[in-house]
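Hi C.,

You asked whether I'd gotten around to modeling the 307-residue construct. I have! Everything is below, sequence then structure, no commentary in between.
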Amino acid sequence: MKIAVFGAGGVGGYLGARLADAGHEVHLVARGDHLAALQSDGLRVESIHGDTSVELPATDDPADIGPCDVVLFCVKAHDTQDAAAALAPLLGAETAVVSVQNGVDNERWLADEIGEEHVVGGVAYIFSTIVEPGVVEHTGGPARFVYGELDGERTDRIERLDDALSASDGIDAVLATDIRVELWRKFAFICAQAGMTATSRLPVGELRETDASWAMYRRIIEEVCTVARAAGIDLPDGTVDEWLEFARELDPGMYSSLHYDLTHDKRLELDALHGSVVRHASEVDVDVPMNEAVHAILRPWADRNER
């Protein structure tokens, strides 16, 4: 398959390298110092599942690439709308643009720009980041990627993507029956992990040891699940307990990408996370005081880092 990775950062770089190792034609879209390093030295992935280095064409102009079978859309949620406007050169009639991002609104934002027929939902369970230009480090998480057509149909293109990901070493690939459920399932966890590590500036291990903080962690998950069900998303009954058990097994030093961005003066995905919970909760008349608290605490920081 011909695959473009739009946003070759921690998640996109990992996927691009693994798919290239499996023999696919992979093109990277990046910017800044990271792009310069990709062009001069290639991409290196340092992973708990095994390291790899690949030399791939990299650019900041999608017109250099042309139409692809698949676009893995891996930009930060706050860049979704601007980046979506640049996708046109990558699109053919059947191109699948797979959103592999945080939040539950990106697919709608993409569809508004490029048409729903191109949009595929995706969820990533991986802790990875750019540690220096040209180098992606995968430190934790199962490297599980879940994806599916928004209407649940088993199209030819989604089965080809499933075949490609399933055959790639270092990727745990899952074709979902209902990707909207998967998007909200992860959303519930990430709002808790991101919100609590960012507001407290402490890793999950210390949150687990503090009764009040661990109770808030649980309540954030519960609130998101309540909003999802009120919005018609059929989340499994055990979602809250499942995520708490998962969080109990995380490395005690684990933070989140929201914490990283906060402490490195980068733009925050707050609007796509807790801001989104608050908006969706208002639409379905559900109270979400814990998510409102996280949003209120981090809002000044989001505004400061935006400037």
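If it helps when you're writing up: Strands lie at 2-6, 25-29, 43-47, 52-54, 58-59, 70-73, 96-100, 119-132, 135-149, 172-175.

Thanks,
B.
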